[in-house]
Amino acid sequence: MARYARRKDGRYQANIVVGLEPQTGKYKYRTIYADTIAELERKKAEIKADLSRGVYSDDEGYTVMEWGRQWLKIYKSSVEKSTYLGYENTINKHMAIIGDIRLKDLKKTDIQMAINAPNGHYESQHRLRLTINQMLECAIDDGLVSKNVCRRVELPHRPRSEKRALTNLEKKAIERCTEFTPKEKLFVYLLLYTGMRRGEVLALTQNDIDLKRDLIDVNKAVGYGKNQAYPKQQQTPGTAPLTS
Asked: Are strands 209-210 and 221-225 parallel, antiparallel or unpaired?
């Protein structure tokens, strides 16, 4: 039986080679502790078995919340600002219920519980599952966990939403509204009759409006996050007709 160092607190300690540091090529060690030599031998055997099967992982002490914020910083730094803020809100708000769980201890039931929490808010539930799934896929690639326990998590039934266009009667009622200021009336009319989105209307400048051709050049948009406006990338520039 191998000899192991005994710490001042009475526990036994052993170091195991678990891989190589990619930057330096030096051995990467994991230190394990146990109250008895038999327990230490068992832990060593489990790690060696995982290494031989290629499923060894070390979460490096990350909690779910800590890894979520690290994942956001590293893997989502180049996404559009509105997308980034959406992920950030999901992590800070909806993931908090499981945020203190160690990454390696996260179970499917934990994720299902977190998804069920925003009861009835399907979009929040969908974004949470999408976010956790992406986080765990990256955690696998980084060797922090050996499997993605979110892959078979189910979403609650999506409630049917009934969306429809405004009727002509409703449009006429809006036109007759006397409480709008001239700017507000212009904003509402552009939404009603050009098919433009709110962010596209808010980004318009005088140079975008061609009165000779009765066209609006739709080439930019603004988004909102944390009560602040910011330029938003316009995916499909085009034109909108000015109607009388």
From this structure: unpaired
DSSP the chain: ----EE-TTS-EEEEEEEEE-TTT--EEEEEEEESSHHHHHHHHHHHHHHHHHT-----TT-BHHHHHHHHHHHHSTTS-HHHHHHHHHIIIIISGGGTTSBGGG--HHHHHHHHHSSTT-HHHHHHHHHHHHHHHHHHHHTTS-SS-TTTTPPPPPPPP----PPPHHHHHHHHT-S---HHHHHHHHHHHHH---HHHHHT--GGGEETTTTEEEE--EEEEETTEEEEE--SS-EEEE---
Q: Give the pair of three-digit tokens for residue 142.
A: 């980084």
- For 94-118, the pLDDT digits (tens) are 999 999 999 989 999 999 999 998 8
pLDDT tens digit string along 199-237? 888 888 888 888 888 888 888 887 766 666 666 666 666
Closest CA to 128 of 68, 63, 79: 68
Please, which residues bridge with residue 240 across strands?
Answer: 216
The pLDDT tens digits for 125-153 are 999 999 999 999 999 888 888 889 999 89
Mean pLDDT of the chain: 85
Question: Can you give the pTM of this predicted structure?
Answer: 0.59
